[in-house]
Amino acid sequence: MNLLVTGGAGFIGSNFVIYMLGKYKDIQIINLDHLTYAANLRYLDSIMDDPRHIFVKGNICDRSLVETLFDQYEIEGVIHLAAESHVDNSIKNPMAFIETNVLGTSNVLDVARRYWMEQVGSYKERFKNARFHHVSTDEVYGSLGIEGFFTEESQYAPTSPYSASKASSDMIVRSYFSTYGMNVVITNCSNNYGPRQHEEKLIPTIIRKALALESIPIYGDGKNIRDWLYVEDHCRAIEQVFFKGKAGETYLIGGHNEYSNIEIACKICESLNKLMPIRKDEKGITCYEQLIELVKDRPGHDFRYAIDDSKLKKEVGFEILSDFDQGMEKTIRWFLNNDAVVKNNED
Ligand code: NAD
Distance (Å, rounded) from C-alpha 45 to C-alpha 67? Predict the structure, then answer.
């Protein structure tokens, strides 16, 4: 199968491409990534010489490039991950999010439709099983109170330019199912953690700041709750929905690991105290928890996200394999061992 993966040099994309090439022998992955600040080609070191992995530096908004890739590689499926993904950046520069997440997604989707389909509701024989999988976020549903869970029936209520741009792209993808009968699936996942995540995100920031013995900034009162999923589980869920999900459907993916931001910071500090104990005399700090500092909240900070993933379990048969504490330890160890890789993404 010739699979186009967009955003495959980013956090989830690089984990996904490596996972798929490890699992399937008869797959060719065309990895299209613009190599924005969030990407790191060194994440792909282990597969750069694999003939089944073709890396293309390019923008998903570039229609003629995307058309050329479909023609040249006879693309039979798309896993669309490329996006601007950091909420804080979307507050500073929303237009980049609208360009990539809304226009870029629409571009790849429309090229796929024209390449695969003869007319409304009818696929070319060669591409009769071709599918477009849009990877999205639970943030499109806005914020929960202390109780309850998002389901596939929850109302869209995005609150940041990031989540609004993802919500817009979800709507466009849905419309290609209802209008053209295109074979699309959407997954909306909770917060991921794991190896290769960009250092701007919460967990890498906590690890990085702690190791530098700098203050660990936590927004507001630290009580905002997120549901965390180990990235490898997300990759398996994407794989299973891509192969087994029903056309036109949305599936929510969650980790059943709800923690407040302050709890996450404390958990990481606790692990670091064991893995990298602080020498008593450094800056008067004796344990990493002392570095945690509450800072001014960001605007529109959603209080809580939580997922009811029963549809995914029932219809696709997906089961989470990772234990949170073990996943977190693997993540911390990865950052400890790959400091140079994370810092040097210019190579
Ligand atoms: P990331 O920021 O780590 O990676 C995004 C990748 O997309 C980067 O490699 C970047 O270079 C590439 N990219 C950006 N703009 C591009 C463009 N115009 N053309 C081509 N490539 C471009 O993001 P991530 O955390 O790996 O997230 C991947 C996808 O999963 C996103 O769509 C995101 O919305 C979604 N998602 C992420 C999470 C999470 O917790 N990280 C949770 C749910 C859903």
Answer: 27
